[in-house]
Amino acid sequence: MGDLKRRCMWLSSAGIILILIYYLPFVSLNVPYIGLNVVENEAGKWQISNVDHLGWANQQGIKAGDTVALINQNKPSEHFTVSQYGIIEQAETLTINKSDELILYKVTNTATQDLIWYHILIPGLVFGILFIFSLFLYIKKRDDKAALLLILFFIAIGFSYLSSGASARIDILGIYINRITLSLIPVLFLEFLRVYFLQHGLILYSRRLLFALYGINGLLLVILSLFQIFGGRLSIIRYSFLAVFSVSILLCFYIIISRYMRYRNTVHKPVFKIIIVGFILSFFPFVVLVGLPSILFGVELIPGALGAVFLVFLPVVFLYLITAKSLFDIDFIISRIRYYSIICLIPTTLFLLIVIYIVREITFLQGIHVGLVAYIGIIVFLYIKEELDFSFRSKLFREKYNFQASLDRFSQTISRVMKPAELEEELIIEVMQVLPVKSISLFAMDLTDNSLVIKKGDPNYPTEENINWLNNNIRSISVGELIDIDSEVLLIVSKAEDKIHLVWIREKQNRTSFNQHEKVWLRTIASYASLVYENLRLIEGLTVKLEEAVSKKDPEHPWVMRLLFNLSEKERRRLALDLHDSALQHQLLWYRKLEIILEDEKIPEDLKKQLNNLAEGMLDVTHQIRETCNELFPPLLRESGIVEALKNLFANAQLRTNYVVNFDSKDFSMNLDYEHVLALYRIVQELLTNAAKHSKATEVNISLSNSNDILEFRYQDNGIGIDLNNLKSSLSHMGLSGIKERVSSLGGNTSLHSSLGKGLEVSICMVVEMMSRVSEQVV
């Protein structure tokens, strides 16, 4: 039932829209537009105050100041358009007093080209565009409330345009449609803004504002109806509608500006900026070129209908906002248009002066028209030229002389260099390839004694005069700065505390000076090189510090050992995956092929026996590879946790060795992160290997416990023990050394207790609460 009701509602709305689409242009085509405004003067006569240049009266030569004697052979005050609106429309005959001469005019429907254009074609075109927008939006976003409000907003604008001709002819239905839709435009706009931003988590204003606007416009419609029925000066209501519309538009603009100021530092800034730009493009031409000049000087710089066409920009902006998945960079576009607007002032002024000089009898209004057309045309031309230039320059010019292509190529090349010498070589090659220079040299200058050393390129030094200038000014030159010295170019590419690298480029082979594009390219490529120089210097310094820390095993920097252990584990994992995915799979493949061969009954028994031995050997190798993979990268270690992982490790170890493992973990309740789990697992692996190969133990006792944030691990066996005094001299070559380093890298302490014949005891203690919490948050 609900779907049927909705369908009926949409069909009814579509029917009404189709009827109005036919009716409103029909009125504009078939009812003459007279275009006269009249006022009653002190003598009681109705004097013409304004003649619309589009109307029939203007074609007949009727002027402002003439008086109207009769309308349809009756007094003007008896004609309802005069008494209610102060306008002469829907008249068949007019008697005009021109210089004390009464002239009878018969009103005919002789529409001019301008009248058809501004009253029918432009409104019809605007309505058609907005109607297509509405259909598109309904198809794409029919379930979006903001989209439905935007559709109503589009239809209101469209009908306000379409009804303007009928309203100007004082057609009652046309007047009501025009007043209703015009009053709904700002209200629907505010309603759309509220719903649209509410969907994005912003509340722009209270709904009471909407209720107030709906109430005011509804009251005006009621007053209009009462004046229409009982008589009254309807021009007052017309101006009231326009006043409410203007205030509502200003209110919309105030809300947008104020909310933009409030949210300009949030992700919503681009949306507000796009809306503001749409508002300016929509209303600025009408207000500045039509409204204000008409009020202040009594002239329109452009026709009002043409200025109103710019209102289409607003629907286009909101259609884009609600349908686009990503927004264009409005800040970039504004900056380019602002730049073009400034630089276009001078050529526009020169062009206008030339036109005035050639066409001497040009009016002020015509000059304004020419200036506007030239100004906007130059801005559009420059913007289109930039877009075309960006799109086609690389295709129209050879890549060698395309500086952008050179920068792309150079950046890719230097991203692979590992030494400063390689960077210097690539820099010289790139400059020589792109610029037709005679020679180029790369110098290193020691700031302690101002000595110059040629590192790459031409072996000839600069002149003594140039070297003296360089010694006096080198400290004030920054990286990337380009200095012209006697048709040669000096470019700083790297600057440290004690050394500077600079490129000295001799003059060009064709003896021309370096142009602006070449200088910009040189500065940019120098900046690229300086960044790589700095990175290589930092990497070199970091490498030296790492080598020192590793060689000293500095306990104050455990992160170094921790990094090395993590890199080692990463390599173990990669090796385990490679073994599993390559060697193991090939081994299994050959084993299956061998099984297929063994199924052949024609094989001699002695050969079959040898092949069976070979198959068993292959199975043993397969098992060893699997064991190696498991040791390199223990499976399910992250998922099972340390306790279960150690139990599995003990079970497998006791199958291959002669010792018994007693494991106690009843006092352990920590949730360790993967790094600590892996470290404990590797420590136990090393201790069990030591017990099997060296200590000859028969019993191993391992306990794992924790007290608050402290993890305690204890290992004890009954093996032959070791002499700890002799251990120190070879500590770096034994597994126990690796255990101590791994524990130290995690901020823990390791204690070793042993003597010959008394087994080995290892105690580990570390604080892990902070690590665990951080790990849990990351997971």
Automatic annotation (TrEMBL):
<dbReference type="Pfam" id="PF07730">
    <property type="entry name" value="HisKA_3"/>
</dbReference>
<keyword id="KW-0812">Transmembrane</keyword>
<dbReference type="InterPro" id="IPR050482">
    <property type="entry name" value="Sensor_HK_TwoCompSys"/>
</dbReference>
<feature type="transmembrane region" description="Helical">
    <location>
        <begin position="305"/>
        <end position="327"/>
    </location>
</feature>
<feature type="transmembrane region" description="Helical">
    <location>
        <begin position="116"/>
        <end position="139"/>
    </location>
</feature>
<feature type="transmembrane region" description="Helical">
    <location>
        <begin position="146"/>
        <end position="164"/>
    </location>
</feature>
<dbReference type="Pfam" id="PF02518">
    <property type="entry name" value="HATPase_c"/>
</dbReference>
<protein>
    <recommendedName>
        <fullName>histidine kinase</fullName>
        <ecNumber>2.7.13.3</ecNumber>
    </recommendedName>
</protein>
<feature type="transmembrane region" description="Helical">
    <location>
        <begin position="236"/>
        <end position="258"/>
    </location>
</feature>
<feature type="transmembrane region" description="Helical">
    <location>
        <begin position="339"/>
        <end position="358"/>
    </location>
</feature>
<dbReference type="GO" id="GO:0016020">
    <property type="term" value="C:membrane"/>
</dbReference>
<feature type="domain" description="Histidine kinase">
    <location>
        <begin position="680"/>
        <end position="770"/>
    </location>
</feature>
<keyword id="KW-0472">Membrane</keyword>
<dbReference type="GO" id="GO:0046983">
    <property type="term" value="F:protein dimerization activity"/>
</dbReference>
<dbReference type="InterPro" id="IPR005467">
    <property type="entry name" value="His_kinase_dom"/>
</dbReference>
<keyword id="KW-1133">Transmembrane helix</keyword>
<dbReference type="InterPro" id="IPR036890">
    <property type="entry name" value="HATPase_C_sf"/>
</dbReference>
<dbReference type="InterPro" id="IPR003594">
    <property type="entry name" value="HATPase_dom"/>
</dbReference>
<feature type="transmembrane region" description="Helical">
    <location>
        <begin position="270"/>
        <end position="299"/>
    </location>
</feature>
<dbReference type="GO" id="GO:0000155">
    <property type="term" value="F:phosphorelay sensor kinase activity"/>
</dbReference>
<keyword id="KW-0902">Two-component regulatory system</keyword>
<keyword id="KW-0418">Kinase</keyword>
<feature type="transmembrane region" description="Helical">
    <location>
        <begin position="364"/>
        <end position="384"/>
    </location>
</feature>
<dbReference type="InterPro" id="IPR011712">
    <property type="entry name" value="Sig_transdc_His_kin_sub3_dim/P"/>
</dbReference>
<feature type="transmembrane region" description="Helical">
    <location>
        <begin position="7"/>
        <end position="26"/>
    </location>
</feature>
<keyword id="KW-0808">Transferase</keyword>
<feature type="transmembrane region" description="Helical">
    <location>
        <begin position="176"/>
        <end position="197"/>
    </location>
</feature>
<feature type="transmembrane region" description="Helical">
    <location>
        <begin position="209"/>
        <end position="230"/>
    </location>
</feature>
